[in-house]
Amino acid sequence: MAVIGVQDHFTGQAINALVSLKPGNDVVETPHTEFKAQMRKEIGPFATPKAIFIVDDLPKTRSGKIMRRIL
């Protein structure tokens, strides 16, 4: 998972999450509403992402770190 800030007309900046699922997990089994509910429970409503995007893979460096500048 990677979390990035994006421009928002209302608040100035909003949180978006990019989620890469493990092989065998299906988006249908875990809909976006369940992701948001779990995040709201764990980190609170103020830090819950405005949008959640399911991606196949996140770009990584040779050392395995996420390349945030590409997102």
Number of strands: 3
CATH-defined superfamily: ANL, C-terminal domain
Give the topology string: H per helix, E per strand.
EEHE
Using the CA coordinates, give the radius of gyration.
Answer: 13 Å
Q: How is the biggest beta sheet arranged?
A: 3 strands, mixed
CATH architecture: 2-Layer Sandwich
CATH class: Alpha Beta
Count helical runs.
1
Describe the structure.
This is AMP-binding enzyme C-terminal domain-containing protein. Residues 2-65 form the AMP-binding enzyme C-terminal domain. GO terms for molecular function: acetate-CoA ligase activity. The longest helix is centred in the middle third of the chain and has 12 residues, at 32-43. The chain is built from one helix and three strands, in the order E-E-H-E. It is α+β, with helices and mostly antiparallel strands and 71 residues long. It has one domain: 2-Layer Sandwich (GMP Synthetase, Chain A, domain 3). It has a three-stranded mixed beta sheet with strand order 1-2-3, covered by helices on one side.
